[in-house]
Amino acid sequence: MFAIAFGTSNLIEVWTLWHSGSWSSSVLKILAAIISVVLGVRLVSVLPKPQTSPDLSQLEKLRDELEARFQQQIADLIELNKSLQAEITEYKQRVAFLQESEARFRLIAYTAPVMIWVSDIERLCNYFNKVWLEFTGRTIQQEIGYGWLESVHPEDKERCFLTRTTAFDARLCFKMEYRLRRKDGEYRWILDTGIPHYRSNNIFAGYIGSCVDITEHKQAEEQIQASLLEKDVLLKEIYHRVKNNLQVISSLLNLQSEYIKDKDDLEIFQQSQMRIESMALIHQKLYQSQDLARIDFGEYIRDLVASLFSSYEVNTNVISLTVNVERVLLSLDAAIPCGLIITELVSNSLKYAFPKGRTGEISIQLQAENNILNLRVCDNGVGLPAEVDLKNTTSLGLQLVDALTNQLSGDIKINYTNGVEVKITFQMLEKNLNWRKK
Predict the structure, then answer these.
(1) Closest Cα partner for 214 from 192, 195, 181?
(2) Are residues 230 and 204 in the same domain?
(3) Which pTM was predicted?
(4) Three-state DSSP class for 153?
């Protein structure tokens, strides 16, 4: 229609221009008008012809279908709206719960009686509670990041930083002690405990730490250590004095023995001197030991037997010695009777087992098994008469061995076959025995 109207307007304009005398331009416009009219006619011819009106029943059927479809869509939208409303309500409840939990956490953290800090995944602290800020007298802007390190004692700063960094990189909990400057300028000892925390999807979110002032505890600990050191010094001095006094007694007996002419009396003096020296050696070992409550009894046995061999002027090429002892720590109450028992048994072997230059061997064994100590002293000498009864013997040495064994609540067995073998078993009892195997 537009082409037809355009062509018609051109024809009118041609008519006007024709009569005005512009013939050449009129010819051109006549051609344009004719082309426009032709194009308009052709466009009109290709337009679709109007459809015939549909039947009324079909229209009603189509309307009903559209109405039903519309109602179904409305129903679906209503259900979807209800679901959305429920989700929105649940979301609001969750948000409210999280906000309440966060507010509660912040309130607890802020007012907790300990210093609390929080860091991000980059090891930078982004939160400090009220107690921390009141302790340091600084603002949170001064503390965040690595600002808190400014209050750490210069001697502890590097160690503190390395401890935190190492734990952060490994995602491990840590505990450390360092000195932190209080707002009054005093450095206080702090126990800092840090633990990693994670989000609900198990993604690392940083660290949460708590700090407690342990200055009084450290001071009390130092006082205890000083007191223990003082007691150790006093105890060592006591052991040293007892050892010296026993050596003085032993020296007096040795001097007195020079005036004794009777052989039996001289032997009694010498035996008493050896017993005193065995006790003096125990106090010397305790004085030299790092643990003043116990001594290494295996080392003590070696020194004791060496002293006995020297006292009896034993030729080791004639009488050999075998010592097989474990490293066992014995208390003073157990070490003294044990030492006296070994002194008596080895002395008897040296005096009676190898007469007239007879060769032989003395063996000492000490083993720890569970809660029991087994002491074995034996020789391959001439042995003892079969009628010897330990309970009724007249030998002072054997009587002493039996009494000392009872003192330790132990059992003693003697075997006279192929020399003499004495086995003594000590059950671990707190009242008389305090040992542990290393």
Answers:
(1) 192
(2) no
(3) 0.47
(4) coil
